[in-house]
């Protein structure tokens, strides 16, 4: 079977149903949470699609299960299984052995608690290749980091880089390295190592300007600020703002929420409390309500920035509210790292003891002292 014959029933039917519903590829992609270029490849029979995609499209297009039924009747793909030596498959087999293979099918991965999301990401990885394998491996690595599984997350970052590099030119090699550097800050990985990743990400992105958006510059600015390289971080922030403004003007799918978060976070680390609060408030307004974990991290970033701006009581109250009100399934490692950053700047203030107690009860401390400063440089 040739690659262009994959999904010759499902793909054309998907296109027919989409057009009958009067939706463009981009509109349908936004509704089902898939990239529009991937949907285009599925419709042309160049990619097989998935049961998840078929189910979501049935829901959005009102096709009463026709797409899911057609996908299930598709011919088997020749050579679908990977050779055992493939590092992605080896890593997948090692991880899936420790997981329940069930779990929900996420409409939007940011709306699913990490412990529920992980098995579904692993399931989708089986049989994926190229761009899809790199994207899924990156999401798995981020999710493992949220769950505090740092050593396993490192394996998946390596797999994501390998898969992205195998794709060739494009945004993925830069994007994976930038995301690893940003997540590595919360994991307390050595800053010199993260700066190397961030610099490599920027260098790769320069080979295809704008392809990875602002993420590589965000990673570099954040790491420089954490290192205390104030002048370099300030220059990186100015570069990020300039590129971000241009991106928002020229790229309809750009996400201003992420850009404002990045700018506000760097401002906080540089001690620019007031502008940082303004930027983080903008990000909060744009962050969807269903992204519970991201909103919690954002609120905690805002709490830290409020303290930096001199609003200590407001910052502490915000941090305490987040930790008390956040549902248990969203209490992950990245949330507690953000809360710990608040504690580190308010240790001698009234109310800090209560925040310390809440943090000390977390299962995600992984042996770190609470609010004990940084020993990761």
From TrEMBL:
CDD domains: HTH_XRE. Gene3D superfamilies: lambda repressor-like DNA-binding domains (1.10.260.40). SUPFAM superfamilies: lambda repressor-like DNA-binding domains. InterPro entries: Cro/C1-type_HTH, Lambda_DNA-bd_dom_sf. Residues 14-58 form the HTH cro/C1-type domain. This is Helix-turn-helix protein.
């Amino acid at each position: 079977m040739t690659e262009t014959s994959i999904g010759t029933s499902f793909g054309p039917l998907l296109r027919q149903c989409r057009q009958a519903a009067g939706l463009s590829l981009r509109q349908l992609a936004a509704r089902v949470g898939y990239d529009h270029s991937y949907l285009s490849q599925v419709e042309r029979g160049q990619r097989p699609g998935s049961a998840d995609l078929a189910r979501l499209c049935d829901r959005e297009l009102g096709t009463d299960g026709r797409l899911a039924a057609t996908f299930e009747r598709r011919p088997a793909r020749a050579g679908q299984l990977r050779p055992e030596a493939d590092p992605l498959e080896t890593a997948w087999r090692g991880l899936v052995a420790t997981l329940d293979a069930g779990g929900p099918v996420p409409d939007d991965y940011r709306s699913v608690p990490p412990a529920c999301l992980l098995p579904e990401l692993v399931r989708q990885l089986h049989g994926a290749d190229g761009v899809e394998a790199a994207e899924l491996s990156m999401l798995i690595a981020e999710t493992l980091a949220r769950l505090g599984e740092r050593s396993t997350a490192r394996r998946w970052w390596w797999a994501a880089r390998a898969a992205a590099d195998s794709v060739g030119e494009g945004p993925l090699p830069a994007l994976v390295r930038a995301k690893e550097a940003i997540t590595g800050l919360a994991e307390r990985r050595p800053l010199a190592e993260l700066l190397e990743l961030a610099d490599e990400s920027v260098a790769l992105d320069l080979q295809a300007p704008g392809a990875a958006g602002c993420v590589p510059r965000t990673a570099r600015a954040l790491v420089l600020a954490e290192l205390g390289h104030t002048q370099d971080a300030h220059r990186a922030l100015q570069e990020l703002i300039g590129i971000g403004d241009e991106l928002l003007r020229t790229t309809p799918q750009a996400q201003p929420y992420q850009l404002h978060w990045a700018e506000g976070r760097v401002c906080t680390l540089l001690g620019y409390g007031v502008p940082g609060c303004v930027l983080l408030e903008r990000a909060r307004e744009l962050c969807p309500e269903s992204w519970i974990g991201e909103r919690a991290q954002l609120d905690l970033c805002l709490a830290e920035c409020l303290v930096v701006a001199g609003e200590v009581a407001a910052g502490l109250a915000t941090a305490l509210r987040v930790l008390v009100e956040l549902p248990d399934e969203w209490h992950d490692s990245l949330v507690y790292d953000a809360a710990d950053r608040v504690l580190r700047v308010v240790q001698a203030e009234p109310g800090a003891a209560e925040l310390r107690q809440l943090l000390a009860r977390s299962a995600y401390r992984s042996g770190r002292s609470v609010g004990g400063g940084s020993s990761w440089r």
